[in-house]
Amino acid sequence: MAKPRLISFKICPFVQRSVILLKEKNIDFDIAYINLDEPPEWFLALSPTGKVPVLEVDGKVLFESAIISEYLDEVNPPSLHPADPLEKAQNRAWMEFTSPLYMAFFKLMMSKTKQAGADVILDANKQLATLDKIKVNAPWFNGDDFSMMDISVAPLFMRLAFLKKHYNLDLLDERENLQAWSDKLLARESIVNSVVDEFEDILLMRIKGAESFLAS
Ligand SMILES: N[C@@H](CCC(=O)N[C@@H](CS)C(=O)NCC(=O)O)C(=O)O
């Protein structure tokens, strides 16, 4: 595989998943940041969906973060999935389960009123409760082996920690399994280094710019 190029938006959690995986696998890669508010023509010509992440590899274009992850995992063994096919399928299902939680975070950032925010939190809490119940292993999702599922949820925990730090909003309160998992993930080198230095400042600016209830 030639050196891949990842097209990124600095606060996109889906791109962050690709970055974590690339770092976990010590894959040398280039990264190009675009502004999704004004996507450049070259990006629109490249990306069938207009969304990031896009991975360029060997002159070809890959899109959809889950597909990018599967590809990178397959061509850079050993796999970060469990070996057992049933366990692997279960992990993939739980990876899929986490995706709406990213949408919830985005909606929360954009919620103008406290009530709109409360509705989003109510929904997100149900999903977090479900995840908390099935996260019985320690330290990682599958026990001792760090896996794709851990990567999949790490950007979410980073955003929940951000909400707690800046807005005193703790969605992991009394969710001991998830809190322990989050602490472990957010201390891991590949995850610490998966965002730009100005990550929190950009989020704070966007929340303010959206006139979110969070900023009031
Ligand atoms: N299902 C996609 C979601 C990617 C996605 O929603 N990316 C956002 C940024 S975080 C985006 O590019 N949005 C631009 C748009 O919707 O036009 C994936 O997993 O790659």
Question: Could you explain how this protein is built, in words?
Answer:
The chain has 216 residues and is α+β, with helices and mostly antiparallel strands. The protein folds into two domains: 5-75, Glutaredoxin (3-Layer(aba) Sandwich), CATH 3.40.30.10; 85-215, Glutathione S-transferase Yfyf (Class Pi), Chain A, domain 2 (Up-down Bundle). Helix content is 56%, strand content 7%. The chain has nine helices and four strands. The chain has helices at residues 13-24, 41-46, 65-75, 85-110, 114-134, 148-167, 176-186, 189-192, 199-209, and strands at residues 5-8, 30-33, 54-57, 60-63. The chain has a four-stranded mixed beta sheet with strand order 2-1-3-4, with helices on one face. Helix 4 (85-110) runs parallel beside helix 6 (148-167). The protein is globular, with a radius of gyration of 17 Å. It starts with a strand and ends in a 7-residue tail after the last helix. The relative contact order is 0.14. The mean pLDDT is 97. The chain binds glutathione (GSH). The site of glutathione has 11 residues, from helix 3.
